[in-house]
Amino acid sequence: MSILSGKKVLLGITAGIAAYKSAFLVRLLVKKGAEVRVVMTPSAKDFVTPLTLSTLSKNEVLSSFTQEENENAQWNNHVELGLWADLFIVAPATANTLSKMANGSSDNLLIATYLSAKCPVYFAPAMDLDMHEHTATKETFQKLQEFGNVMIPATHGELASGLVGKGRMAEPEEIVRFLEEDLLQKAPLYGKKVLITAGPTYEAIDPVRFIGNHSSGKMGYAIAQEAADLGAKVFLVSGPTHLEVSHSFIEKIPVTSAQEMYEAVHQHFTECDIAILSAAVADYRPKEVASQKIKKKEGELTLTLEKTKDILASLGAIKKHQVLVGFALETQNELENAKTKLQKKNLDLIVLNSLNDKGVAFGSENNKVTFIEANNKVTPFEVKSKTEVAKDLFRYLMNELHA
Ligand code: CTP
């Protein structure tokens, strides 16, 4: 999955011949999972039609402060548009529009929106080579970058005038690649490695039976997704679940038993910066695993169980720079038991799950958690979706534990 997935992208199109490529750019951004809205300068409509762009973006295309064709003319709110966007890309960006952006001359909706935007702004210049080389244009590029805007440089090639030189807008594929790389490099966990365990473990009784539990894995997968969205490389050691992941930053390592999970976790722990163990690991496993299916007999069957290795505690015993997070599911003396677990296993944070609240149960989309730090700081949260809980967790790890 792309870091652009779920992002609100505002595309500003100005009046250059490269505007026809903006249709491809919209298509690519939508394919990456972004929500796209388009704002154009009035003259850009001579190069590419709003109908094409609204069809591809599945959103109305705006180009003026009011919708004149509408009887009850409505004001198009540039402030709202600017605030809506997670990122604003001006592509193609003509010399004229760039100069207006640099000088704040707000004579159209696109510039007014740019001046209202609070999000990162990218611009992809497109112009003839002499315009591109002119001192005025170079000063504009510099000024805009000094304002914090990011330039997606023009490339060298044949231009609409027939001349050959620098000034072609970067191809839509290159623009998307540039955006992805830039966003990832600026992501707060870029360069960090996060180890996550998720789901249940199955402990074999014989070739067809096992001891398992109801864990769905949803919490761990939501944590993995959030870590990857924040730019981290993720090792997701997962017990058997029906869940799937599709994020290039997540390496899923499927395991079945507690012993397999233990081995996979220890293979990656030393290189990781954060480890979050959310799996519901079986505490016991059959001492003997029958090599053939156990046949039913008269009377009772007794299974002797032995303890599995406590993966979390084993990491607590060897951790160095790593931030170590465990989960606790308690039904009584919740806080006290969770605090004891945190100390015993040498954790930095424990996430207490409560089953005593409505709307939270195994397999549910929601969770109600309390974070407890090693210094005994307790932070309770409301019932939230597991995705939101994952966001709270990383916000906490980054802000409070400086992970
Ligand atoms: N855990 C682990 N390896 C185990 C057992 C648990 O890594 N063999 C981890 C879980 O992933 C979770 C935390 O330890 O992060 C839960 O601690 P645990 O003491 O096992 O809690 P419970 O399973 O609730 O155990 P208890 O019956 O003691 O309450």
Structural notes for this entry:
This protein is of the alpha/beta class and 403 residues long. The chain folds into 2 domains: 8-186, Rossmann fold; 193-399, 3-Layer(aba) Sandwich (Rossmann fold), CATH 3.40.50. The chain is 33% helix and 23% strand. The chain has 13 helices and 22 strands. It has helices spanning 19-31, 50-57, 78-84, 95-103, 109-116, 129-133, 135-146, 172-186, 218-229, 258-268, 311-318, 334-344, 386-399; strands at 8-13, 35-40, 61-62, 87-93, 121-125, 150-151, 155-158, 164-168, 193-198, 203-204, 210-211, 233-238, 250-254, 274-277, 284-286, 305-307, 323-330, 349-354, 366-367, 369-373, 378-380, 384-385. The strands form 6 sheets. Strands 13-12-9-14-17-18-20-21 form an 8-stranded mixed sheet, sandwiched between helices. A 6-stranded parallel sheet has the order 3-2-1-4-5-6, sandwiched between helices. A hairpin with a 5-residue loop joins β10 and β11 (210-211). α1 (19-31) crosses α8 and α3 (78-84) crosses α5. The chain is elongated. The protein starts with 7 loop residues before the first strand and ends with a helix. The structure holds cytidine-5'-triphosphate. Cytidine-5'-triphosphate binds next to α11 and β17. Cytidine-5'-triphosphate (CTP) is lined by residues 197, 258, 277-279, 281, 283, 308, 310-312, 326-329, 341.
